[in-house]
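Handout, section B. The chain below has 634 residues.
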Amino acid sequence: MITLTLPDKKELHFEKPVTSLEIAQSIGSGLAKASLAGMVNGQLMDLRAPIKTSGAFEIVTDKHPKAGEVIRHSAEHVLADAVKQIWPSAQVDVGRTDHSEKFQYDFKVEKPFTPDDLVKIEDKMNQIIKSGAVMERETMTRDEAKKLFKGMGEDLKVLRLNDIPESEEISVFRHGSFVDLCRGPHVQQLGQIGAIKLLETSASYFKGDENNQKLQRIYGVAFANAKELKAYETLQEEARKRDHRKLGTELDLFSVSDDVGPGLILWHPKGAMIRHLVETYWKEEHLKDHYNLVYTPHVARKRLWEISGHSNFYSENMYSPIEVDEQEFQLKPMNCPFHIQIYQSKLRSYKEFPLKYAELGTVYRYERSGVLHGLMRVRGFTQDDAHLFITQEQMFEEIQNVLAFIIRMFKKFGFHEYEIYLSTRPEQSVGSDENWETATEALRSALEHQKLKYHVDPGEGVFYGPKIDIKIKDSIGRMWQCSTIQADFSLPERFGLEYVASDGTRKTPIMLHRALLGSIERFFGILVEHYAGQFPFWLAPEQVRILNITDAHLDYARKVERELTAKGYRVHVDARNEKLGFKIRQAQVEKIPFTLIVGDHEVDTKTCSVRTKEQELKDQSIDQVIEMFNREES
């Protein structure tokens, strides 16, 4: 018996597998016509795929938050169809696994696509969509699939078939004369793809390996209607203005050097000051919350990563070993094994729990050059990491404490809206079913006790435990992944961790992995784009700029500078022999929160003229200016 629970808590019972489309048809013809996909236990399913397990169920229409993912996935197939119609000899590789923002396909073609080619392809895609062709799902054996794609001359597809596990069902989707290997889900008919736009093309490699044959990739977006596409284009234009790479150069915050290497950041004085302010606040808050600050090395013997399991589960993101004194060392991709070593430096007692170690630890992860992106995707970054060693009885409370800490931290930086995901056990994992269930339930209970809405993300936990991920919404509505809380029974067992329990016996602690901001580099980039470079007063690297009209006013400008600096403000006098208007515009371009102008009148009256982004005020005493600063900081 299969039991499916609808959003209104009504239960549907079936004696055999049933499809989402059949359920929608049983509810009403209007719903069936509007359906794009089903969702079982938070996971999208194709309308035509049989549901074989019980759980929460809902129908996805174009009003559903996940509708765009189905539409973009379907537009992907239309893209491949269009390319094949224009260039019949092209071979189709694969599309994108994450359709939350874009779609893409890789192709083996004789020459790279040009901007004019994208126009042709987009026109052809619109013709295909207007046909309203039905998308059909079909399952077949591995041999049948090989015969199909070999007969089509799709050699890359034949190779891709080998990547599908023997236990997994093989499905293809057809529309018109086009067919492709795919799990879905897809729309019922192409007319449900309301609007598309191709964005760009780039080089790629088969299976992402530079040693394999070179392919060409096309990126695009798709929406339920033209209005949504227009909103996307407006958002992209605003995002371009806020691009942290552009602003990072204009505001002299950071740079990347070819001589140093891609994905490695050079922090300039102004960027370093903002980072210092972020990290200082971070440390102060952690000390208030009874964390112990620690520091650990950048490398460790290879055997440490073998014990932790990273060598088996994370090797593709780790750099090759370095031989030192005939022993192999590796750059650290994580901080957790080091914190475990600190824990193991002596026998621990339950009376020390919760034992909380926190570190701004720099880690190194191999990212392919094609995915590096400013501060958002780098090869060396500082993780605001912490690990809590606790008893099972403390897990619920400590997860709640971390959740409250995260929300408090983000409010300080101006983020007030979130999306929260509970990620469950992946296919490749370690640990007992019982431990996974206990950890997952503790995370779920903490979220529900805090009355925090969340989505279940099936199979997206880390190899050692389930996790909570928190995305923050920026000022133009984009979501950014930052915080994570991971419950881990496995690593303490792998390293043989113990503590003396209240009854005198030795027991194994539970470990919570936790990051609030995530990567400091990435969070810095998010801050730049969130504020469009106009940082709040407390974070501005230069809070005040003083402009003297002539050299005769320089002594008074320096006096004001000394008074404000003594109060702890970050102040600079622009004493250049330039016109006042030029210096004012320069301060505006550099997004200085307060500009103080001093001339004859200000020297005589011991005041300043104050300019901000919003207003101009004359005859302000130093005390009045400081009062304005205090209001900005409150």
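Note. The chain has a mean pLDDT of 94. Compare this with the example in section A.
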